[in-house]
Amino acid sequence: MKRFLILSIVALFGAAIVRAEAARADLVSQVETCEAILQEFQSRPDTAVPAVVLQHAKAIIITNQFKAGFLLGVKAGYGVIMVKKPNGRWSLPVLLNAGEASLGLQAGATSVETIDIINDEQTPRLLFKHRFSIGVDAKAIAGPKAAEAERYGSDIFKTPILTYQKVAGLYAGATVKAGQVSRNDSANATLYNTRYTMPELLYSDFVQPVDEVKPLMNLMQRLSP
Prior knowledge:
This protein is α+β, with helices and mostly antiparallel strands. The protein contains six helices and eight strands. The radius of gyration is 19 Å and the shape is globular.
């Protein structure tokens, strides 16, 4: 009986480790997907965020939202936020929940990929209160393409958020009017193995980047040094 109890405890402990590793692997996949979204946006002239916009960025939010149904809008998603520190280096990517975007007359969308360029230092801190709605709590407009950015000049950067977006799937007349993002402290605790939460992860150097997030950090540093 004693041997059976010991084997049972070992089995349960091993199963818990496997579950924890699987959960972390899923979070790593989320970061990698956000990196892939940014790379894909920048690889196409019709979706690329202009260099002048990236140079002015104080923060960036990259989201992947999905599972939309007819007239129901986006119901699930995730993303990351990164801020540019005073020394010009980009922060750790901090995981977010993303969802509840209004898609208007939407039929069967499979995914909505969004890059939000934040032009001020106050907007990212709205997330310290747990969540905010892009376009509601912080004004957002469609981000300009390269030629448009030059035409608008510096006035375009007076808007807190410039949004770049792609909608995949079968859809008709779909425009995402607003998206809600919120903190995901439990995910970040798992990814970085830390008790520090969003404020420290974004604005301090208390937590060092894990290997899996370095490619995204390096990409942002190249795009906006």
